[in-house]
Each structure stands twice: as structure tokens, then as C-alpha cells.
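## tool: complex_structure
## caller: assistant
## args:
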Amino acid sequence: MSILLVAQRRDMKPFRDAILNVDPNIDIEIWPNSTNPGRVQFAVAWHHPQQIWKSYPNLKVISSLGAGVDHLLKDSSIPEHVQLTRVVVPSLADQMSDYVLTAVLNIIRNSEIYRDQQQESIWKNQPAHLKDELTVGVMGMGELGSTTAKRLYSNGFTVNGWAQSRKELDGISTFTAGNLGEFLNQSNILVNLLPLTPQTEGILDLDLFKELKKPAFIINVARGKHLIEEDLVYALDKELITHAVLDVFSTEPLPESHPFWGRKKITITPHIASVTDPDEVAVLLVENYKRALSGMELLNEVNRKRGY
Amino acid sequence: MSILLVAQRRDMKPFRDAILNVDPNIDIEIWPNSTNPGRVQFAVAWHHPQQIWKSYPNLKVISSLGAGVDHLLKDSSIPEHVQLTRVVVPSLADQMSDYVLTAVLNIIRNSEIYRDQQQESIWKNQPAHLKDELTVGVMGMGELGSTTAKRLYSNGFTVNGWAQSRKELDGISTFTAGNLGEFLNQSNILVNLLPLTPQTEGILDLDLFKELKKPAFIINVARGKHLIEEDLVYALDKELITHAVLDVFSTEPLPESHPFWGRKKITITPHIASVTDPDEVAVLLVENYKRALSGMELLNEVNRKRGY
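## result:
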């Protein structure tokens, strides 16, 4: 039996080495160099090429290499009986909450404006936003969203949370699906940490921007396809949105000709908010591989209907 | 009896209004328009012109408008019998810890590098510094230093503290005056929150930079004169220091021709890390004014010999 590692635009060797560190007896193949596809029962995938699965007749489980599984769910060639799982490790949530906290602090402390001033040797005080003046609204209250909301709250921010089902978190006002408008009306800094599903695709659009409390800011750290990019440009031009911090984009890498690059009101990072650590992930992958072989219940199994 | 407000390059009217909000019966004069100097017993000063005090024969107390009192201590024309106090309000320490936390997070998450990349439309991952790889060293463990150290620790950072006298803070390793070298050898990101005294002036020099654990970073949020500016430029050029975040400068406003402006390895903000809120400060000023009139012990009195 063996594990198959499949990715495009990502070197999987560090993951192979990390898995072998956990258990040197595991057989691992890295796509496309699999010599014995019939032995593959467990695959680890990140932006895999579609339609490859028919070469692996004994595949039982595909694990995403991250918390997101939209890249798996959109591949209709994955047989129904194959179970899907994802990787939820503490450091992913910790990194994500660091990234969001950094972005929120830079917003309230006018970091981007001071940086622009520095380029022109301008010494000028810009009134900071007070913490109790701006409310942060976190969309998506899974592992990443909850951890991020708690981090913001413990740093003195007023935080709203929005999720499909009701969540109880100390100090955080939570809203459910039916109360999206109310949530938006009471949130200035919107942090998107939703899973990408047919229901959430394109959710960050002009209608949503209009509903946000002003001044309004967008932090998108989930998936590029949550955002209607033209709507953001329009909203920035119309000053409906003051600034946006984006780590994810509809097309990645963001094309050199993309209009986002040159905009001062957009901060761009290259999908680095939360980066999977091979050593940490390997422990979880090996655990789930052994569970799969022995027929035990998997950790972090994905509900295909729900979409995460 | 009356309060005198004295400042250069700062509008004191908001402070007068805030004091009158607390107690509308207090007489207040704003320098240089004092009509009855003989009635002034309490002065509030921020970068006052020296030698003005002889016009106020009945002055008993001078309060700094901030936490720093170096601008008062360097004025030898203040009579010995005049008591000095300073303003220590919770929001100053909270703002300061926000500023430092923002700077530290931006350092570990490579924010400046990503910003430079954005200007050239470059999509490139830069390995983030792990939190357990870089230790933050806070110099100065007064109100601002302790609050900042605690904020960093509660956000998952490893924190060292250095102070004249031993401080006990949960989770933070503290060093005293005699162990400066040891403190520096174990700190990567140096946060300066010392008071400015003859002993600490110029403390951030090449010798200190050499002692820091590498990679090394400097965050100066105390006073410009703590830093030997030429030494910092040399240390950045020699890569002894990777990046510096500076909120205070030897000359403020920082002159347009100053070499710091154009350096990518220096982040400049215009002395905004911690800004006094008139309403919050007024309560404390009025309290101390009334204590002064009735001969009670003052809050936050300054020990001139110690320098803070």
C-alpha cells in the first residue's frame, strides 16, 4: 500500500521527507512518477490536475494539503466512494490569526499612509482609528475563523462573527445565515474566512460592500473566487471601501498585468497568510493514512454536500 | 489660582476644553497669553521654551503632558522646589503596545518586503520568521514597557525584559542593569522603551547592535536621542541590523533632507506610537492640580535624580 502526493506548482518532496520522518516504512510516490498505481490507497492533493484518478483504481481517501477543499470538490472525476479529508493543524489557525491581526492593526494605525508619506519625506500625523470606533466582522467561524476572532477580541477589538450555524464564543457577537445584513451593518473591517462553496462564491460583491458600516475595509484570506474583483475596484473608486488587504486571488499567481498591483488602496500578499508546515502536517497525514488502512473513522472528514 | 498650559508646536486648546469639561470652575491660561502669572501654581508643559518659569513666581508643580519628562529635566531653570509629575494613562500604554505589536508582526511576516514586491508586480513567497525563532527584547519595564511585554507574550512571542531593577512578570525573562550583554545576546527584536536620562542617551549604538542576536531588528519608540543615528545607518549597511522601525528622532519633525527617509530598511512614523487623549489626561491633571492646591501627595511624581 502507498501514499500518492499530487500537486502542481508546488514541490512535494518536503512532505515526502516529513512523512518518512514520522514513519520510515511508508511507501510514497510523487505524481506523475508513480510506478505502482494499483498500490495507492491514500492521496494528498494540492491543485491537482483533474481526471488523474482513474489511474488509481484502489484509491480510498484524498486529503487536501490545507484547510480548503474547493479544489477537490470541483473535480467531478473523483469517484463518489472516495472519502475526502482536510488538514487542520493549530499552526495554520495561529498563522492566520497573526496575518489578520497584522492587517487589522495596520488599518487602524494607518501604516499604509505613513509608508506612502515616507516615500515623499512627509512628516504628518494621521489620526489613528480608535479600537472602539471600528468593529471587526469575521465571516466563517470554523477553526480558522474562531481562532482569529478570539485573537482579535483578546487584543481589545470589538468582534462580530457570522456563520451558517450559531456559534457561542466569549465576548463575540455572532450572527447566523439569515442575519447577514445585520452583521454587515455592524461591521467595519470585514475578514473573509469562509469555505468556498457554490453559496459563498462571489459573496464579496458590491451589494455586500454597500451594506458594510463605514469606513469599511476588506481582508480576504479565504479564496480569490469569494471576491468579485471588478466590484472591489468600483467600491474603492467610489470610496465605499477605504482599503483592502488581499492574500488570495481569482487567478494565482496574480498576473503581472492585473490592475490590483498598482493600487495604493490594495495591499497584496502572495497567498502566504497561512502556510502548511510539512512536519506538522505529516503527523496528521500518517494518522489518517493508518486509519484509512484499518477502516477507522477519519480525522477532519469533509461533508461533500455541505462543502467543507 | 490657575493652571498654565505651555507648548511649542502643539495646540493646547483641546486640553483646556477637556480640563473645563472635568471642572468648569478652574482658571486656565495658555502660554504665552497669561494675563495673571502670579496666580499660576500648576503648569502643564510639552516642549516648552526654557527660561519662562521666572515669570511664574508661585509655581508649585509642572506636569509633563506625556510619560516622558526629559524635556523638563534638561531645563535647569526650573526651580528646585517645583515638583515634577508626568501623565501615565492606560490608553498610552495600550496604544504603545499596539504600535509595537504591529511593528513586530510586520517584521516576522515580511510586510515591508511584500510591499516592495507589490510596487514591482512581483508574486514571490518569502519565508516568514517563526515566532519561536525570534525573541523580542524590551528595554525599559515601566508602565509602557511592562504592558508592551505582556501584550507580546500573550500573542505567542518569546519576550525578554531589561530594567534597572528586577521586575517579575509572568512568562517574561527579566534581566537587570548588570546583565545587559546577556539580555542582548538573547534578543533579536529590540524594543526601546527606556526613559531618556544621561545614562541611557545614545544607548542604541554600534556596540549594542553587535551584541544583539542575529537576525536583529530595532524598534525605537522612546526618544530619538537614545539612538546614534550614524551607527544605525552603518549597521544596516553592514547587515548587522536587518530592519529598523522608528517613531522618534533626534530632530523632530525629521528634516526633509535626512538620510533615513529614503531607506527601505527603515520604517518611519511621525512620533505617533502613543498619542495623549485630552479627555483621558484632563481627569488626571485636574486630580493632581487639586492635590497640589491642598498639599496632598501627587500622582506619578518624578524623581529628579533617577530621571523618571
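## assistant note: Residues 90-108 of chain A form the longest helix (19 residues). DSSP finds nine helices and twelve strands in chain A. Handing back to user.
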